[in-house]
């Protein structure tokens, strides 16, 4: 058996776990296959797809039929575009469970029609109940925002993070904590409040909808998520002159 065949076998074997309540805590994703392991050939990705689809169909013949009927996720995820933080993988959920928006340094900009459209669709149409903002330690965007060097167009995108750094400058001067790690956390918290202050979320709360906004950080070195304990569950949590409060 050559390396490629062995990888495919590992991939298939990884899908043979039975999805039932008694084993839910032991579920793991299949062995990761690197692009270099398949000769950096896009056609090989199509072969991987066939293996993946076949494995799912074997476990549940109606899996893709049901998927095609529509989506009903309870979660919308605003994360970083970093390739090392795939939303569904790190929380071990499958297709159809998370509505995902990702961009550099997990920003939620009130002038960005892209993220606003994702939020509105998720809240108003999909009726999600949880909004998760997930950053990660070692974020290149956050680190870049801490310098006065030019990086091109992305500098405009990172301006909001620079403002966060400037606003908390005294905190950074006094802390022994890694500055980029602290800024990652502060950035996530700020995006949580940006989302919570939108008319989209505020109106959902006014209608009595269950809708919670959470802030998490992913640690690349351990694979673990950290809850920043910044959970906003209602408009009263944002009673401040700069936010909407009903």
TrEMBL record:
<feature type="binding site">
    <location>
        <position position="82"/>
    </location>
    <ligand>
        <name>Zn(2+)</name>
    </ligand>
</feature>
<keyword id="KW-0862">Zinc</keyword>
<dbReference type="GO" id="GO:0008270">
    <property type="term" value="F:zinc ion binding"/>
</dbReference>
<comment type="function">
    <text>Reversible hydration of carbon dioxide.</text>
</comment>
<dbReference type="GO" id="GO:0004089">
    <property type="term" value="F:carbonate dehydratase activity"/>
</dbReference>
<keyword id="KW-0479">Metal-binding</keyword>
<comment type="similarity">
    <text>Belongs to the beta-class carbonic anhydrase family.</text>
</comment>
<dbReference type="Pfam" id="PF00484">
    <property type="entry name" value="Pro_CA"/>
</dbReference>
<feature type="binding site">
    <location>
        <position position="136"/>
    </location>
    <ligand>
        <name>Zn(2+)</name>
    </ligand>
</feature>
<keyword id="KW-0456">Lyase</keyword>
<dbReference type="GO" id="GO:0015976">
    <property type="term" value="P:carbon utilization"/>
</dbReference>
<protein>
    <recommendedName>
        <fullName>Carbonic anhydrase</fullName>
        <ecNumber>4.2.1.1</ecNumber>
    </recommendedName>
</protein>
<feature type="binding site">
    <location>
        <position position="80"/>
    </location>
    <ligand>
        <name>Zn(2+)</name>
    </ligand>
</feature>
<dbReference type="InterPro" id="IPR015892">
    <property type="entry name" value="Carbonic_anhydrase_CS"/>
</dbReference>
<dbReference type="InterPro" id="IPR036874">
    <property type="entry name" value="Carbonic_anhydrase_sf"/>
</dbReference>
<feature type="binding site">
    <location>
        <position position="139"/>
    </location>
    <ligand>
        <name>Zn(2+)</name>
    </ligand>
</feature>
<dbReference type="InterPro" id="IPR001765">
    <property type="entry name" value="Carbonic_anhydrase"/>
</dbReference>
